[in-house]
Amino acid sequence: MEVLPAAGRWQEINEVDGMTTEAWEPVQRVRTYEQVMAQIEDRILDGRLKAGDKLPSERDLSALLGVSRPSLRESLRVLEALGIVDIRPGGGAEGGAVLVGEPGSGFVNLLKLQLALGQFDQTEVLETRIALETWCCEEAAQRATEQDHRELGLILDRMDDPDIGTAEFNRLDAAFHVRIAESTGNSLSAHLMGSLRTAINRQMIEAYARLENWKETATVVRREHRDILDALHRREPAEARRAVGDHIRSFYNIGNVEA
Amino acid sequence: MEVLPAAGRWQEINEVDGMTTEAWEPVQRVRTYEQVMAQIEDRILDGRLKAGDKLPSERDLSALLGVSRPSLRESLRVLEALGIVDIRPGGGAEGGAVLVGEPGSGFVNLLKLQLALGQFDQTEVLETRIALETWCCEEAAQRATEQDHRELGLILDRMDDPDIGTAEFNRLDAAFHVRIAESTGNSLSAHLMGSLRTAINRQMIEAYARLENWKETATVVRREHRDILDALHRREPAEARRAVGDHIRSFYNIGNVEA
DNA sequence: GCTGGTTAGTTGGTCTGACCATCTGATGTT
DNA sequence: AACATCAGATGGTCAGACCAACTAACCAGC
């Protein structure tokens, strides 16, 4: 933990170049908030700032950088939305902007909007999930520990509840897939996967809701999940890959009956 | 193209609840910029806003929403950083915030910082690339057109230049991999892949620069690229998958000799 | 009538200064 | 010692102002 001012000087952004207006040609407009972002990025990239460090207060930092508080705040807002800093109000040790070391909801925020805007479509999300999850299962079949197996089993057990609702079923479904990814030890894959899943969560729930006989679908899903877990238990990467691929494709076909 | 005010009323954010201060208990703090984001998100999600639409001017929109311009601007900054809107200064038809329909550099911005912060490490990026690229190659072996094959060949031809520098070689290398992904028709996978690659671009270049005999490495890389393209030509998914997996792993081993 | 320069208005970009709610931590009281 | 209180710091928000860049309409001159 380190408070910034002690970690070297911040460079003031508003530097005069004192030259004539000529020779100012292709240099595209750079907004001050971008320059602020750039300075913070640099300090992160070269290690002067690391996870857990706390930034100076908005007033201090804006003064250090020679920019106004609103501009500085625009930068902080972006960093917050990206999940880079965590901002808490209040004074003392608790308040302030802290660099976070754990991935947050940055991807989900991004993906949801990009999906809604039609930058990507649902089929692409599905295929990308298949790409990631087949690899994850393949690796999980080799890397997963007994503990991973147990926890995955517990999730499936909870999904066996005959009185379960679609919302909870869907939640556990997602948890199962993410848990597999996590058992590979690759948090990026796991996080990406989870984000993709979350981004289309709304559609998933609606798809479940559209099913008249969703209980039958649930039965199929339960069976396929068990198959996947069995393959992990038996440590058969190829079989695990096949099982999860079929599983995702099968659910996609069901859910898209009337899409 | 549609300018917003005509597309239904915006709901003012500052609504009084007129109640006593009691019964205000677990409702966690919601900042106005988040409420603005939420309203714009809603309009995107339900289709009232779509790619190509232009938002009202900052002054108008802030008035419509009943928030101050700085708060509104914080929201716009975030949407811009996420690649959701494109903001251009100046009046008339050119200026203003426009919703974009093409994925931009949102992922890269995010990944670079998350990587720098240690939220993920390089090995995870590598493995995720393998997950995505093996799938992409497998599919590309089935989906790629003759045109795709031609363009990929052209990229490899340019990499054959014996006088090529590391920077250009690396750039073409990335282009080759991304072009394969694009030939699957899955722009999400392609974009994710490209973003992962871009996020570690700096490290890639440094890795190349560290190699004393990088020419030899380049020879190996060229050969492996040709193998991959051959597999695509012959439309052998399994072979394409294997070739690209080996290729990535092989380069990783070389580049990490002294990492 | 057409061209070209001028001007008014709009837009985003930025800043200043102010006020509020909340939380911390020291102060002071019981 | 325990509690209540208050000053200060912090983030959250706002109003108003100015600037630079650009558009579009206007107008003078040919």
Description:
The structure is a homodimer of 259-residue chains. Chain A is mostly helical and 259 residues long. Chain A has two domains: 4-99, Winged helix-like DNA-binding domain superfamily/Winged helix DNA-binding domain (Arc Repressor Mutant, subunit A, Orthogonal Bundle), CATH 1.10.10.10; 106-255, GntR ligand-binding domain-like (Four Helix Bundle (Hemerythrin (Met), subunit A), Up-down Bundle). The first copy, chain A, is built from eleven helices and two strands. The first copy, chain A, has helices at residues 32-45, 58-65, 69-81, 106-116, 122-143, 146-159, 166-182, 187-199, 201-210, 214-233, 237-255, and strands spanning 85-88, 96-99. Chain A has a two-stranded antiparallel ribbon. In chain A, α5 runs antiparallel to α11 (237-255) and α10 packs antiparallel against α11 (237-255). Chains A and B meet through α1, α3, α4, α5 and α8 of A and α1, α3, α4, α5 and α8 of B. The structure holds a DNA duplex (30 and 30 nucleotides).
